[in-house]
């Protein structure tokens, strides 16, 4: 018996579980798990007793507690319970042309961005590699049942992936090497942890980098993204420019438009200047701020979001308005708090 969970186990762990069996069994089970997305019980090539041994020795890490499906049926939010009782969420999005899963990297988040429901709830713990990979596998299984193939993963659920680098990177490698996802279809979204971005620059797989910028000057960014005080905008931009140069991958900036706060003409001006100064051919994703219980300001109107996009475009910055998904099931960006009571944490944000 091993202590590890099903999608945390390495091939060596699996070999231990399968001790006494012919060697080809390891490959057989591994392919069942990662290529055919099967439960051990479904692995018809295995004798029944062996299926049971695999299932028992390698238990799942996530217990499905609740599943909410949006009106159109094209967004599914899962609420999972971890073995220690902590809740996390995953969102599966079915677009006409692609299927994307948005995964959590931590239970909660320590970064304290006041406008984000995860930040409002505070940090609970890091997720393990197995807990991250399992979110992808179980969403992919559901997509498969709908005759769709999951090909895109975004680390935009709960948590800050670059604050849990080791587990996140091992999960990325498992997705790439074993689930067969292209690195170009995996996106790590960060609030701007500069050393983490630098480490990514040195890694082999060219994943997409998304940076949640939200403000183009330190004075404003300090107030809405507390970690900006540690990693100010110029340092962040230099790390992004280096990533772009080394990887040749486009960088995207996420910008949640907050009414009267970061949607002014001057904000568009500053952002365009910033991109020019660092020669950053970035792509800006605009989204109106989604409502969360602990933040008093509102998202910009749809009309203002479009105006802001046009302002950026006229200044030579590529920008798109991101389709907002799942607001009716609290599955949209920044709304993931796993049903936890969310308290107002302005003092933390203002630190
Ligand atoms: N911690 C990482 C990844 C998770 S957050 C990060 O911050 O990048 C995923 C995205 O949702 C980020 O771009 C984040 O800034 C954005 N977001 C957070 N709260 C939001 C809200 N209330 N409305 C819209 N977007 C929000
Ligand atoms: Fe954490 Fe990202 Fe939310 Fe900030 S926006 S609190 S970094 S999850």
Summary, kept brief:
This protein has about 350 residues and is an alpha/beta fold.
What's the helical proportion of residues?
A: 25-40%
Give the biggest beta sheet. 10 strands, mixed
* Radius of gyration over all CA atoms, rounded: 21 Å
Provide the succession of SSEs. Answer: HHHEEEEEHEHEHEHEHHEHEHEH
Instruction: Count the DSSP helices.
Output: 12
Indicate the multimeric state: single chain
- Label the structural class: alpha/beta
DSSP E strands, number: 12
The unique ligands bound to this protein are: S-adenosyl-L-homocysteine, iron/sulfur cluster
> Main sheet: which strands, in order across?
1-2-3-4-7-8-9-10-11-12
Uncertain runs are 341-351
What's the mean pLDDT score?
A: 92
Distance between the termini: 47 Å
Share in β-strands: 15-25%
């Amino acid at each position: 018996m091993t202590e590890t969970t099903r999608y945390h186990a390495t091939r060596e762990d699996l070999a231990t579980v399968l001790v006494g069996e012919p060697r080809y069994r390891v490959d057989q089970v591994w392919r069942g798990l990662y290529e055919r997305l099967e439960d051990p019980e479904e692995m018809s090539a295995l004798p029944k007793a062996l299926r049971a041994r695999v299932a028992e020795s390698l238990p799942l890490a996530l217990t499905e507690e609740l599943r909410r499906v949006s009106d159109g049926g094209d967004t599914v939010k899962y609420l999972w319970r971890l073995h220690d009782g902590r809740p996390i969420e995953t969102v599966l999005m079915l677009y006409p042309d692609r299927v994307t899963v948005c995964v959590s990297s931590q239970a909660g988040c320590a970064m304290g961005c006041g406008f984000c429901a995860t930040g409002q709830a505070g940090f609970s713990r890091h997720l393990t590699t197995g807990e991250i990979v399992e979110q992808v596998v179980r969403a992919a299984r559901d997509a498969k049942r709908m005759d769709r193939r999951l090909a895109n993963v975004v680390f935009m659920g709960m948590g800050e992936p670059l604050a849990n680098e080791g587990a996140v990177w091992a999960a990325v490698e498992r997705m790439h090497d074993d689930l067969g996802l292209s690195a170009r279809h995996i996106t790590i979204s960060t609030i701007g942890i500069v050393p983490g971005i630098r480490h990514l620059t040195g890694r082999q797989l060219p994943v997409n980098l998304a940076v949640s910028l939200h403000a183009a000057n330190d004075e404003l960014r300090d107030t809405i993204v507390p970690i900006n005080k540690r990693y100010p905008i110029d340092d962040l931009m230099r790390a992004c420019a280096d990533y772009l140069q080394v990887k040749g991958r486009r960088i995207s900036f996420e910008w949640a438009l907050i009414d009267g706060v970061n949607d002014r003409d001057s904000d568009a001006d500053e952002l365009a200047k910033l991109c020019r100064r660092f020669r950053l051919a970035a792509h800006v994703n605009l989204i109106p701020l989604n409502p969360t219980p602990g933040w008093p300001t509102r998202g910009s109107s749809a009309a203002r979001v479009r105006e802001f996009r046009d302002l950026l475009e006229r200044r030579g910055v590529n920008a798109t308005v991101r389709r907002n998904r799942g607001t009716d099931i609290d599955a949209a960006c920044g709304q993931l708090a796993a049903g936890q009571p969310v308290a107002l944490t302005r003092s933390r944000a203002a630190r």
